[in-house]
Amino acid sequence: GSCTASRTDAGCFSIRPARPGASFAGALVTVTLLGSEAEARNELPGYMHHVDEAPVDLGPIVATGAWRPSIGSLTDPSYMIGFTYGRLVVVIDVQRASSTRTTTMDWAKKFGSVYVSSIIGVVKP
User: Which tens digits make up the pLDDT trace of 47-75?
Assistant: First the structure.
């Protein structure tokens, strides 16, 4: 797909400026294609090795969510959501500076739900 500033569609995600009061916010999506569905399922935990892991309902997919309250010495919380789709391992990582677990998780779930709804109709690789 093609990207247009401040627009999200099935082929493109755009990251808008941080909400007021946040010094940094961002989202990263990593997609890894592995050799088989079984390998993807086995490798997923390696991408989700943070604190407070729990299931996250993204509609048609129940993913794994993981809270990371800081990165090294930085108070830069992150909420990761990971799931497999056929041979793919998909990890969504949303960060908000000095944010709470609840708010960061809310952002990640909203982003993840849109992402899942855009790929769910595609044949699994």
Answer: 776 666 789 999 999 999 988 776 555 56
Rounded to two decimals, the pTM is 0.73
Q: Under a CB-based contact definition with an 8 Å cutoff, are residues 64 and 48 in contact?
A: yes
Q: Give the DSSP H or E segment for 25.
A: strand 25-33
Nearest to residue 92, comparing CAs of 104, 102, 101, 103?
104
Query: What digits encode the pLDDT tens for the residues 69-121?
Result: 765 555 667 888 999 999 998 888 887 777 788 888 888 898 889 889 989 98
By DSSP bridging, strand 62-68 and strand 78-85 are antiparallel
Whole-angstrom distance, CA of residue 10 vs CA of residue 42: 28
d(CA 94, CA 106): 10
DSSP output for 70-112: -BTTB---EEEEEEEETTEEEEEEEEETT--HHHHHHHHHHHH
